Amino acid sequence: MTDPENARLQVAVIIGSIRNGRFGPVVADWVISHIAQREDMAVDRVDLLETPLPVHMPAFGEVPSDEVREKVGALSSRLAAADAFVIVTPEYNHSYPASLKNAIDWHNEQWHAKPVGFVSYGGVSGGLRAVEHLRVVLAEVHAVTVRNTVSFANYGQLFDAEGKTTDPASDVAAKAMLDQLAWWGQALRDAKKTRPYTV
Ligand SMILES: Cc1cc2nc3c(=O)[nH]c(=O)nc-3n(C[C@H](O)[C@H](O)[C@H](O)COP(=O)(O)O)c2cc1C
């Protein structure tokens, strides 16, 4: 029987890009392959393309329509079930995609007191400007971002046809980021059992 104290950390890997022809799933599946090798984590692959959200938000206090609640709820339940997140983001105009901002904004307590790690990709900046913007936004919803980022600059040259990275340094970077995510995820999960996050 699983000891709940030692249960695997539930990690939601969020694919931030929903563009036709996007590269995001290749990067997401690469980091998922790293998570799959770990004994301390279980993964949920959350593709924002598969859980489309409205952009038109209700007024404060307004009860959304059944259709909106159903659409948002499909994503909310998966975010709520996660102990930790890995956000896979490209860089769009020196920031991150609108689809990702919308997913963050529709939620609040689902992010609370949970760690977030990043895998970014883009041109020469490797998506790091998107990550720095995300750190500021996620602090507002009480999430904790981990220090190390995995970043792919000029990513087109860095993955082979099977979606594996050609630079072993990326695997080292993924381990460092996931180790930090595990530390924070376990620490916060344990802390919330005795001290619910209500601040
Ligand atoms: C609207 C848009 C804006 C972009 N702006 C940037 C940018 O500011 N910096 C950058 O490095 N790449 C930029 N790019 C290139 C993307 O990093 C690249 O197209 C990447 O493949 C996008 O991720 P995706 O394929 O998963 O959508 C931009 C791409 C799009 C579609």
UniProtKB/TrEMBL annotation:
It comes from the Bacteria. Pfam families: FMN_red. Keywords: Oxidoreductase. Residues 10-155 form the NADPH-dependent FMN reductase-like domain. It is an enzyme of class 1 (oxidoreductase). Its EC number is 1.-.-.-. GO terms for molecular function: oxidoreductase activity. This is NADPH-dependent FMN reductase. It comes from Streptomyces eurythermus.
